[in-house]
Model the fold of this input.
Amino acid sequence: MSSDQVQVLKKLILDHVSSPSVRHIRDPIVISRLAEGFVANFDRRDPLWQKWGEQREQLLRVAARSFVPLTDLTDRLNELAGPKMTRADVQQRLNALLEESYFSYPDERLHAGCLEFYETEKAKGTEFTAIIYALRDYVDEEEDRLRREWQDELSRRNEEEKLAARKRLRSGADCKWTALEDGSKSVYARTNGRLFRLTVTDDGFQVLEKLESFDDSEPEWIGRYRYRRDATKVLKEVAYVD
Done:
């Protein structure tokens, strides 16, 4: 590592920890940017990419996931020091960059929004470099929003499936292991029209019982098992024994 690289890394770290906000220092997005800075500093580009100096490379890395129009990006890169670039130069270097393990491909769902953001800022007269840095922030925020929406949708579907399973269980239909209440130590299953209960004991074992109904006070004890899969295997056998 050269002394210049050491100084760059020191500056990146000092800039990061100098924030008065602990929340900001621990923010995953901020940490991701810090990591990108480390990677960019250590990166030794393939000598085949002769047109890519440090400034050009930095600009491309910032713009890589933001759907910046290729023509505008090429024009801006040609304003920086180095040999003249074509659209093919930029597109192929961009493709190679996105294939690197620490980069992810742009989310196509953000394509239209990124273009609208870019054109709006361009019409205002915002400097190109400022636009792509703002676009990077926009992409980070939108990806975070999409992740939250996906998690919310997943939780909603899980809740719907849980309620549907409880409804099937109560209706008398065959059903896989289902808890009647959240947080319950017992789950119920119905196989071949027969009702079974599996209860977790204090020592972590699973007690399998056969019931006539949910309020059966004298269930038929079947066995005690270490894992649910073991109890399930037994259930599949005893459910068909008269």
About this structure: The two ends are 76 Å apart (CA to CA). DSSP finds nine helices and five strands in the chain. The chain has a mean pLDDT of 87. Residues 172 and 193 are 7 Å apart (CA to CA).
